[in-house]
Amino acid sequence: MTFPKLISTIVFIFCCSTSFAQKSIYNPQELFAQNVFTKNGNEFRSANGTPTTKYWQNRADYELKVTIDTSLNKLSGNEIIHYTNNSPDSLSSLWMQIDQNTYRTDARSNFYTTPQPTEFTDGMDVEKVYIQYKGKVIKADYIITDTRLQIRLPYKLSTKDKIDIGIQYHYTIPGAFGGRTDYAETKNGKIYEVAQWYPQMCVYDDLEGWSTLPFLGSGEFYCEYGDFDYTVTVPADMIVAGSGELQNGAEVLTAQQLKLLAAAKKSDSTIIIRSVADVDSMALKPAPTGMKSWHFKMFNTRDVAFGASRAYVWDAAKVNLPNGKTSLAMSVYPVESVGPQKWNRATEYLKKSIEYFSSKWFVYPWPVAVNQAGIAGGMEYPGIVFDGMNDEGGVLYWVTAHEIGHNWFPMLVGSDERRYGWMDEGFNTFIDIYASDNFNKGEYAPKRDAEYAPGLGNPATEIVPLLKDSAAPAMMSRADAIPEKYRHPVVYFKPAFGLVLLREVILGPDRFDYAFQKYVEHWAYKHPSPDDFFREMNNESGEDLSWFWKEWFYNNWQLDMSVDGVSYKDNDPVNGADITISNLQKMAMPATIEIVWKDGSKERFQLPVETWLQSATHTIHVTATQKVQSVTIDPDAMLPDSNRKNNALSF
């Protein structure tokens, strides 16, 4: 061997062997261990992830009548709940949520984060509770514990039996500190955003029995489905925009408003129902005396909310749904929000979002959707969203699409947000990505939050630090147990990016979309658990994805794949090239390998996840006629690789 050749060989070996010095902590037996699921299938939830013919859930139908005293910001209500026990169990007590108690000075929610709140209300004052069962009306024996109310029944409520619960109550509506439910001043009057405004039945299911976690804030809602019949009484000069469909328009609207509303139901363009001029004209007149009652109904829903104000500009347009169906999108907002790139386009944003989600995942099921401007800044309820009155442009589009997207997750697919926030926020953040790409030929695309930036060349600028953070909680953590520092990365962005990886890298769009659509279809108006989602995606996609659920959802593991070297038998490319790669961290993923040959031509091939089924290092033999110029693993940077410096070797 001549001296120049010796130097060349040494350099080659050094370049190709640098990654071997890195010790791998990858354990295929741990990642691919079987029996990842916490429970087997049973008579209620099949092993394939779908509800069985014996699946059950209880039902709560509501009659609600409330009045708002705008001088005191006080809501007073009377409620009747028609509760049906469809469970196989006899119930000795009933549990409800009374979320307004989260604003009390002694609420548990005041103590689990810092800084602690400084503004409070007295919570919900429950004046009277009674039950009616088999024709008998009796005073209820009940206790209130933080944000829960328990009724202790004098006899057990048998399976398939029904009971009526009556409650009289009142509370002070919080100001801006309310967050999700509040009131705010505008130049033409207060805007009320009213949510979590009535005692609501807790869910009783086959997973936990009674779901009685207190309302702390981050963990949101878990609700039974039923029909709602509700009436809101407010001063006569106010407009009420609520979940569901207005039943008495002829009593509360002018003839002109009724005419314009009817036109909007047939119009693809936004029609103004109550204009800026109408609001200004009203402001010049003496306030009318008396009250008006707005009557709404909404069917097969888990909740309702509403907004109320004398300051509303109001517009609406038709929503075109699959198979010739239609709905109505409408927005209400103060004159301060008017502008060509502001709330003038809010109904357009709402309409297009509903149309896209309906065509892609599941048809929007309710006759109306409302976008209400206020200070809640982005909050969702069935059929209505509360968005920021100062939002405009892309921000207003994104928040509108995101909040109305929640009508699919979790309003339709009724997961337990209080335990598994990622099944709500993560799924919805995922579907946002494609909605933004679709809207108006990508006017506000791409929507790629920094925490999960697929398609921008470095998909994980924030996910990688999260995966490296030993203090970061896993996604399966209880929603309220995730510190605010990690809430958006863990609850919103990591699950969304995980679904992008499933769709774009692991399964492909066709298989992913089919499986995801089936999950939505099978669990619409029902209560899926994480296991149900994991199992259904496995079964409908035809892949055992247990390894992915384990590494991405149950753990916060890292990914680090490296190209270790290239060699030729007898140093002759005609014998083919052997490419050695390693997996250095605990996560594994399928990946793309790109070879650039000496003449500049390129070749790609796909590595399945089974590449890592037995070991952390793998040598791939490829046919060659010339030497390799470079080898790169994950050349499009689709994967959250924690060390991209070892992803390529050049010669």
Could you explain how this protein is built, in words?
With 651 residues, the protein is of the alpha+beta class. The chain has 13 helices and 31 strands. It has an eight-stranded mixed β-sheet. A six-stranded mixed β-sheet has the order 17-20-21-22-24-23, with helices on both faces. Strands 6-7-3-11 form a four-stranded antiparallel β-sheet, with no helix packed on it. The longest helix is centred in the last third of the chain and has 23 residues, at 484-506. The two termini are 21 Å apart.
Summarize the structure.
This protein has 13 helices and 31 strands. The chain has 651 residues and is α+β, with helices and mostly antiparallel strands.
Total DSSP helices: 13
Order of strands, main sheet, comes to: 5-4-8-2-1-14-18-16
Rg from Cα: 29 Å
- Tell me the major beta sheet: 8 strands, mixed
Q: Give the termini distance in whole angstroms.
A: 21 Å
Instruction: Provide the structure class.
Output: alpha+beta
The average pLDDT score comes to 93
Total beta-strand segments: 31
Runs in which pLDDT lies below 50 for 5 or more consecutive residues are 1-21, 450-459
Q: What's the assembly state of these chains?
A: single chain
Silhouette: globular
Strand proportion, as a percent range, falls in: 25-35%
Q: What portion of residues is helical?
A: 10-25%
List the helices and strands and how they pair.
Elements: H1 3-17, H2 28-31, E1 59-69, E2 74-85, E3 91-97, E4 125-133, E5 136-139, E6 141-145, E7 148-157, E8 161-172, E9 182-186, E10 189-194, E11 200-201, E12 204-205, E13 209-210, E14 226-235, E15 239-242, E16 245-246, H3 249-252, H4 255-264, E17 271-274, H5 276-284, E18 291-301, E19 306-309, E20 313-320, E21 326-333, H6 346-360, E22 368-374, E23 379-381, E24 384-388, H7 393-405, H8 425-438, H9 463-468, H10 484-506, H11 509-523, H12 530-541, H13 546-554, E25 561-568, E26 577-583, E27 591-597, E28 602-607, E29 617-622, E30 628-633, E31 648-650
Parallel strand pairs: 1-14, 21-22, 22-24
Antiparallel strand pairs: 1-2, 2-8, 3-7, 3-11, 4-5, 4-8, 6-7, 9-10, 10-19, 12-13, 14-18, 15-19, 16-18, 17-20, 20-21, 23-24, 25-26, 26-29, 27-28, 27-30, 30-31
Helix pairs in contact: 6-7, 7-8, 8-10, 11-12
